[in-house]
Amino acid sequence: MSSIETFYRHIFTFLTNEDFWMRVSTGIVQMIMIIVIATVLSKVLKIAVHNIFKVRQKAPIRISERREATLLKLLDNVITYVIYFIALVMILDTFGVAVRTLLAGAGIVGLAVGFGAQSLVKDVITGFFIIFEDQFSVGDYVRIGNFEGYVETIGLRVTKIKSWTGEVHILPNGSITQVTNFSLHNSVAVVDVSVSYEGDIERAEQTIRELLAELPAKYEDMVAPPELLGIQNFTSSEVVMRVVCETKPMRHMFIARALRKEIKLRLDEHGIEIPFPRLVLYNRQEEETKRAKTDA
Fold this sequence. Notes:
By secondary structure, this protein is of the alpha+beta class. The chain folds into three domains: about 5-115, Helix Hairpins, CATH 1.10.287; about 125-180, SH3 type barrels (Roll); about 185-270, Alpha-Beta Plaits, CATH 3.30.70. About 55% of the residues lie in helices and about 15% in strands.
């Protein structure tokens, strides 16, 4: 019998082996069951975690909403990683892979790789301290280096920031050295109002003060009634008065725009004009002619 015939005979015997196909079919069924159970378990655990946080929201002592949103996203990721890793190990064990030996070898390889992946370790450690120290949370408006926007995700390795124009910046946590968080405390809206030199300054101030007292009932983002500080500056054609208002975090731009509109409408109602640039022309020749006539 030739070697080719022997080879084909072994292939035929292998393919017609009932025990082999029984093991394969059993393994496939077990793999599908493991994946289904892992998916269901992952969803159940996530729902349970979300419900626990909903219950904590009604408790007298609770963490901030910012911290809750950050921890929820982090726990969702951890649950997904852990459950599917266990599922993968169980699937390998189902097909007869020596999982213990594989994990032991992976530990040695991981130790060797760890020395060459110091930046990855740095990212993970930094991410842990960002969450532990509550430096910033999901939903905060922050500036990190040259990037500025709302925090979408904080992971153990990367942080995602979405700018107001829609770009998403993905930053390794190890590269985050300085953070400016605009969402921790109230903001301040600053608006400058110009009045012409010919206008009645005291009347304009009184009109603006009456308006400012009415605005907190109209705009809920105002923490306190706006305040007219007084005359801020003199320019070539106008007197500049400054209005400030304490607002909820990151609502100062909206309130500043609303203040400008409300003040403009109220000044128009009282006939107080906002100045416009003026240009005075001086005719030297005409002035000299008048002076000559006067001397004569």
